[in-house]
From TrEMBL:
Pfam families named among the record's database cross-references: BatA
Record-annotated membrane-spanning stretches: 6-24, 56-78
Superkingdom per UniProt: Bacteria
Protein name: Aerotolerance regulator N-terminal domain-containing protein
Organism annotation: Pedobacter kyonggii
InterPro entries to which the protein is assigned, alphabetical: Aerotolerance_reg_N, Double_TM_dom
Keywords, comma-separated and alphabetical: Membrane, Transmembrane, Transmembrane helix
Signal peptide bounds: none
Domain Aerotolerance regulator N-terminal: 1-76
Length: 456
């Protein structure tokens, strides 16, 4: 038994009151009527006192009553363990795939339904489904949210500890960056897909690529290998700062991936993009070295604060240790966990300016160690009006699947979360009933005590 407000037990100090009453038992004298009092003088009043407990049962009842009242003030409760098993379980399947699942997994699903399992749509809301819903499967497209988000959201709908059978494929592009923690037991039944090889045409920054995908990987091959103009990038790095090496490594990776020629600090001509890696204000000379309508990426100077937070970049959370305080209302590109700007953007004097409130330095954050660093810089370096997450896009023909090792890690992370849960059950009603019974008993015993009369 536990107490919601243990301070209420201080009322137990009131137990001393009935004890004092019983110990300080004053016996008052009786008045006797006689025939004549003329010859009697006035006598002094005499009272008798006894420090002796005469009625132990009444004392016990009164002390017990005060104890119960003190417990009621403390609001007692007990923790009940709720079993993780339910009488029925859930079947999760995307409504758009319902007909296909019933055709290929009919024996398994029929067996589960006979056991009392409920069929639910694997989409926002997790609405119940029936066999009649297979008729309109073509009227609804597959969900756009990834499996990670939906499986986590199901925690709010699926009773804790419920057995859940999930019918879906293991396509890698349907997963987020983090594995969700679930309150139910997940049994993933993979769907057999015959189209394990596919291809499509992707366009990015004026170039066309043929993408070929299989369960292991997706590759891109340039189709129009024309002579695109090179990308000139100017980098200014203040003395004592070694951030440029991380930036240059990322730029080389972007050039290798996109097959675009990137020239760093060209000997002649203007730069398309300028990176100002210094706490000093950007000089007018450096700005003039950037072509009109070009891009300027600059370190911001200001009050530096230490923080235990993260940079939100493309759905990932990168550890953040230090940042510069940002007070402007510019468009936020990257933010920390509290919504403060880490990278902001504005148009200034024909320059597309990015204000960076951190540094490309592991002492400030772990961005340069994460693969998302290259992806996050790509839209700044390879500018495209119709930009997409090229190479990272969620294409419907992407056939990549979870590896056996990844799938094992995903499944093991779920079994640990299907544990017993507890629920608090208040005991106030029981204590009130007990207090009422004791109070009635104490009153009955008190009135039954008969006074001793003195006969004359």
């Amino acid at each position: 038994m536990q107490f919601l407000y243990p301070i209420g037990l201080l009322a137990l100090a009131g137990l001393i009151i009935p004890l004092i009453i019983h110990l300080w038992n004053v016996k008052q004298g009786k008045t006797l009527k006689i025939g004549s009092i003329a010859l009697l003088g006035e006598s002094s009043r005499v009272s008798s006192k006894s420090f002796k407990i005469n009625d132990w049962l009444l004392l016990l009842l009164r002390c017990l009553l005060l104890t119960l009242l003190a417990f009621l003030l403390a609001q007692p409760y007990i923790k009940k363990i709720i079993s993780g098993k339910n009488k029925t379980g859930w079947i999760l399947v995307d409504k758009a795939m319902l007909l296909h699942v019933f055709k290929t997994q009919s024996r398994t699903i029929d067996s589960l339904i006979k056991q009392g399992y409920e069929v639910h749509d694997f989409n926002v809301g997790f609405e119940p489904l029936t066999l009649k819903d297979t008729a309109d499967h073509q009227t609804k497209q597959s969900n756009s949210l990834n499996y990670t988000a939906l499986l986590y959201a199901a925690n709010q709908f699926v009773p804790s500890g419920t057995e859940v059978y999930f019918f879906a494929d293991h396509r890698l592009n349907r997963f987020g960056n983090e594995l969700p923690t679930l309150n139910y037991k997940l049994n993933w039944i993979p769907l057999n897909r015959t189209d394990t090889l596919s291809s499509w045409i992707a366009s990015y920054a004026g170039k066309k690529y043929e993408a070929k995908s299989n369960p292991s990987n997706t590759t891109y091959e340039v189709l129009n290998s024309g002579d695109e103009t090179s990308i000139n990038i100017a980098i200014h790095e203040a003395s004592g700062i070694a951030d440029g090496k991380y930036l240059i490594a990322a730029l080389k990776a972007i050039g290798s991936f996109t097959k675009r020629k990137i020239i760093i600090n060209p000997a002649s001509g203007k730069a398309d993009i300028g990176f100002w890696l210094s706490d000093d204000p950007v000089t007018s000379t450096f700005k003039s070295s950037i072509t009109p309508n070009g891009t300027l990426f600059q370190y911001e100077k200001g009050k530096v604060i230490a923080t235990l937070s993260a940079i939100n970049v493309d759905g990932r959370q990168i550890k953040l240790s230090k940042r510069v305080v940002s007070n402007n209302q510019l468009e936020k590109i990257w933010t920390d966990a509290f919504g403060n700007a880490i990278l902001a953007n504005e148009k200034v004097n024909n320059l597309n300016t990015f204000h960076f409130y951190s540094r490309f330095n592991p002492q400030w954050n772990e961005l340069v160690w994460d693969g998302v660093f290259v992806k996050a810089l790509m839209p700044i370096v390879i500018q495209d009006k119709n930009a997409i997450d090229f190479g990272f896009e969620n294409h419907p023909n992407d056939q990549r699947r979870l590896s056996s090792r990844q799938n094992a890690a995903f499944q093991s992370s779920k079994t640990e979360s299907t544990i017993k849960t507890t629920q608090n059950e208040a005991l106030g009603t029981l204590f009130w009933i007990a207090a009422l019974v004791i109070f009635v008993t104490e009153r009955i015993l008190s009135f039954r005590q008969k006074p001793n009369y003195v006969k004359s």
